[in-house]
Amino acid sequence: MMKRTVLDTDILIDAAKGIDTAVQCLFSLEKNTGVAISIITYMELVVGCRNKTELRSLDLFLKKFKVLPLDNSACGTALRLLKQYRLSHGLMIPDALIGATALTSDLPFISKNQKDFRFIPGLNLLPYPDSKKEEEIRT
């Protein structure tokens, strides 16, 4: 089996909404490489829950993912990335932490929001299906 792929929060949100591209992407990755998420992604999803029922459903759903913790290496890398890219690229704290987790774990990473991560050196950013079409629609 190949290395697990780290998923960004946006893909899981879209998959939960039933958006076909995200559902197919998630299914394909689960089948081919296995998937992981950063603890930051888990936290972002918890914040999106509107009640305890949704929180229980989220916990059940996320049991199939390996949750990657923040360690000193990821925190140090995230801080370095923020210092280097916050002003020039608008890098946000959660994205820095999620990207740094994938980077320091030496795992490929996939996000619908490619522009939020493509400038990070060494990050193995996988292309998201139809991401070019979606970016063209937004511009």
From TrEMBL:
Domain PIN: 6-118
InterPro entries (UniProt xref): PIN-like_dom_sf, PIN_dom, Type_II_TA_system_RNase
GO molecular function: hydrolase activity; metal ion binding; nuclease activity
UniProt entry tagged with the keyword Magnesium: yes
UniProt keyword Metal-binding, yes or no: yes
Residue stretches spanning the membrane: none
Entry superkingdom: Bacteria
Cofactor(s) in the UniProt record: Mg(2+)
Keywords assigned: Hydrolase, Magnesium, Metal-binding, Nuclease, Toxin-antitoxin system
Signal peptide: none
CDD domains xref list: PIN_VapC4-5_FitB-like
Family that this chain belongs to: Belongs to the PINc/VapC protein family.
Protein name: Type II toxin-antitoxin system VapC family toxin
Origin species: Desulfobotulus mexicanus
